[in-house]
Amino acid sequence: MTSLVPAHNPNTTGKPAGRIRQKNEEVIIAAAEQEFARHGFKGTSMNAIALRAGLPKANLHYYFSNKLGLYVAVLSNILDLWDSAFNALTVDDDPAEALARYIRAKLEFSRRQPLASRIFAMEVISGGQYLEKHFNQDYRTWFRSRAAVFEAWIAAGKMDPVDPMHLIFLLWSSTQHYADFSTQICKVTQSKRLTKDDFEVAARTLTHVILKGCGLTPPAEA
Fold it and tell me: Torsions phi, psi of 204, nearest 5?
């Protein structure tokens, strides 16, 4: 599900399109992630983002007319990735295989895009003021449709009767933990950073624990 992005300029005639536009927006969003993760929304300026991106400030306003539009674009980007992975689950799937794939996909997002996940976490913790348009009735309807997949698996006897809503919360929190709290994990394990191998161990562990808790047998490759 795609949330509305206030002040995000549409791709109208006379503006760069296609790969050029996509590349420039990716550079800007990546720089914005760095600044928002470090200083938060209030402490970040468009000028600081422009400097980090190595672009004139005017270029930022060319694509994002204000800081709020850019901030929401960063949030929307990670939410769209998370939601697209969740949309892949269907009632016809084998629950064990589908959940194992989903856990790995979410952990891969945490490995590759930890800053966006942290920005989202900080926004939610602070009250989610800029996510109100995302967490609307459409989102709640979408969430119920995802819970309905688990309900269908349970009704078909494919998995134990666990509460779908709280299972979803567990899937989200456990996988995003490795992005949001990587500093804590590294302090405890005396590591400088989380490696690809660390995420592989996490994937196997979470898959085993969560699937077993649902009465499922983890796939051999998990």
Answer: -65, -40
